[in-house]
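Section 4.2 – Deliverable D4.2 (structural model, holo form)

The reporting period included a commitment to supply a predicted holo structure for the target in complex with heme C. Inputs used:
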Amino acid sequence: MRSITETVQAKPWVGWLLFFGTMIAVFVMGMFTYTIVERRTEAQFMLSPPTDIDPLEPRPEVWGRTFPRQFNTYEQMADTSFRSKHLGSYRRDLLEENPRLVILFAGYAFSRDYNLARGHIYSVVDVQETLRTGAPMEKGDGPQPATCWTCKSPDVARLMHEHGPDGFYAKELSDFGHEVVNPISCASCHDPETMNLRITLPALAETFERTGRDVTKATHQEMRSLTCAQCHVEYYFGKDNYLIFPWDEGMRAEDMAEYFDERNFVDWTHGVSRAPMIKAQHPDYEVFTTGIHYQRGVSCADCHMPYKTEGGQKFTDHRIQSPLNNIANACQTCHRQSEEELIRNVYDRQDMVKEVRTTLEDILVKAHLEAEFAWNQGAEEEQMADALHLIRHAQWRWDYAAATHGGSFHAPLELTRTIGAGIDLAHRARRKIASVLIDLGHTGPVPLPDVSTKEKAQAYIGLDMAQLRAEKEEFLDTVVPQWLAEAHERHQRWDERKADPDWEGSYLFD
Ligand code: HEC
Ligand code: HEC
Ligand code: HEC
Ligand code: HEC
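Output (C-alpha cells):
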C-alpha cells in the first residue's frame, strides 16, 4: 500500500481534498463547541437567573421575560382543542351529558352549571363565568365567599400577605373581584430567588402540621406532587369560611366521612330528599396516593409536566394538560408500549370505573326521588333520619370518585372499592325508604318524574335558568370590566415602581 505522501505526489487533488475536508471538520466542530458553550451558559442562567421578580409577583408574563421557554409552553394552555374519550381541555357541559347530576346536586350551585376544567390559564375567567358564582353586583354581595378564589390565582398569596389568611377567607368573593385577576401561574409554585418549588397557600402546610408532618421537609420528588396538592385535593370551608383539608382521620373516602360526621358538618341540605349532604371537591392527590404510580415514586409532574427538548435545551413543559395529548414525553419515557396500547390501557380503566359509577348514580337518583315521595306522603323527620344518613354517605362516596376527574386512571382499584361501598349504602337507603313508605300505608312502586334531560331536571328542582343566565350576563357586561380596569391600573403602578431605581422594598405593596 502506498503512503499518503506518495498518493498526494501522484494525485495532487487528493491533497487539496484532505486539506478542505479537515478545514470543514474543524469548522463544524467549532460550531458544535460554540453551541454547547452557549447552551451551558443558558442552562446556568436558567438555574440561577438574575431575577428582580417580587416573591409574590402574580403576573406570569413578568416571569416570562426571564423564563421564555416555560412561559411559552404555559401559554399553550390557551389551546382548548384537545379531547380524549372522557376528558380533555374543551368546555364540556357535564350536566347536559349526564342530567342525573342535576338531581344529585339539587339545592346546591352545581345543579346550575358544571363544566369540565379547561386548564390553569382559564382559572379566573371560569370562576367569573360560571353560574355557580351568581351575579354579585356590589362589593360584599354573595353568594360565594372569597375562599373560592384560593386555588384560582397567585393574587391570593399576595392578598393573604396583606390581610392574613383568616382576614382573606372572611371576605366575599366580590370583595376581591378587582384584586384576583391573574390565573394560576409561576408564583403559585416557584420562589423567584432560586426557582425552587414552594408551597404558597397555607391550607396544605397547616394540614401537614396538624397531622404531625412538616411540608418543608418534603423531598424534591414529593414537591413535584405537593405543589399540585395545594389545590387538587378535597377541602371544605370551616368556621368563617376558613379553608381546611379534612385529612385528620386519613385520606380515604370513609376516613373523611368519619371526619365530617364527627363535626356534624353539612355542605347543604338536599333540595329533593332533604338529606344532609357533603360535597366532594376534587381529591386528586388523595386518590393518586392509593395508585400504583404514586407507590412507585412517580409524581404528578412526571406525567402532566414532562421534560421537553428545544434547541438542545431540556426543560419542563409547562403546558399542564391531559398526558394523552403528549404520550411520547409523558408515558413512553418509562413504558415501551405503543401509543395505541397505552391509550387503550387508560380508556379501559376509565370505562370500567365509569360503568360502576353510573350504576351508583342511578340508584342514588332514585333514592333522592323516593325520599321526596315519602316526605310528600307525610313521613316524619325521625322516620327518615336513617335513610337520609345513608344517602349522605352513599353520595359522598360517589362524589369522591366522580369529582376526581383523573382518578379512574390514577387509582382505578381504590375508586372501584369506594363506589362499591357506595352502591351498598345507596341500596340500604332505598330499602329504608321502602319500609317508611310501608309504615305510611303506601305499597307498590313509587311514581318517578321524568328528569331525563338537563332542562327537565332543572325545571323539576325549580331552577329559573333564564333568570340566572340574564343576571350573569349583566354581571359579566358591567362588573367584570370594572374589576379588570382597576387591576390594569394597579399593574401599571407596580411597573412604574419596579422601574424606579429609588424605590425601596416590594414594588407590589405601598
Ligand atoms: C393554585 C391552585 C392549583 C395548583 C397549584 C395546581 N392546579 Fe391544576 N387546576 C387548578 C384549577 C382551579 C383547575 C381548573 C381550571 C379551569 O379549567 O378553569 C385546574 C386544572 C388542572 C387540569 C385540567 C386541565 C385540562 O386541560 O383539562 C390538570 C391536568 C391539572 N390542573 C393538573 C395540575 C398539576 C399536575 C399540578 C401540579 C404540577 C397542578 N394542576 C397545580 C388548580 C391548581
Ligand atoms: C403548578 C405548578 C407550576 C407552575 C404554575 C409553574 N411551574 Fe415552573 N416548574 C414546576 C415544576 C413541577 C417544575 C420541575 C421542577 C423540578 O423538578 O425541579 C418546574 C420547573 C421550572 C423551571 C426550572 C427549569 C425547568 O424547566 O425544569 C423554571 C425556570 C420554571 N419552572 C419557570 C416557570 C415559569 C416562568 C412559570 C410561569 C409562567 C412556571 N414555572 C409555572 C411547576 C410549576
Ligand atoms: C416515571 C415513570 C412512569 C411514567 C412517566 C408513567 N408510568 Fe406507568 N407505570 C410506571 C411504573 C413503575 C408502574 C408499575 C409497574 C410495575 O412496577 O411493574 C406503572 C404502571 C402502569 C400501568 C399498570 C397499572 C395497573 O393498573 O396495574 C399502566 C396502565 C400505566 N403505567 C400507564 C401509564 C401511562 C398511560 C402513562 C402516561 C400517561 C404512564 N404510565 C406514565 C412508571 C411510569
Ligand atoms: C402516570 C401518569 C400520571 C400521573 C403520575 C398523574 N396523572 Fe393525572 N392523569 C393522567 C391521565 C392518563 C389522565 C387522564 C387524561 C384523559 O383521560 O384525557 C389524568 C387526568 C388528570 C386530571 C383530569 C384532567 C382533565 O382533563 O380534566 C387531573 C386534574 C389530573 N390528572 C391531576 C393529577 C394530579 C394532581 C396528579 C398528582 C397528584 C396526577 N394527575 C398524577 C396521568 C397521570
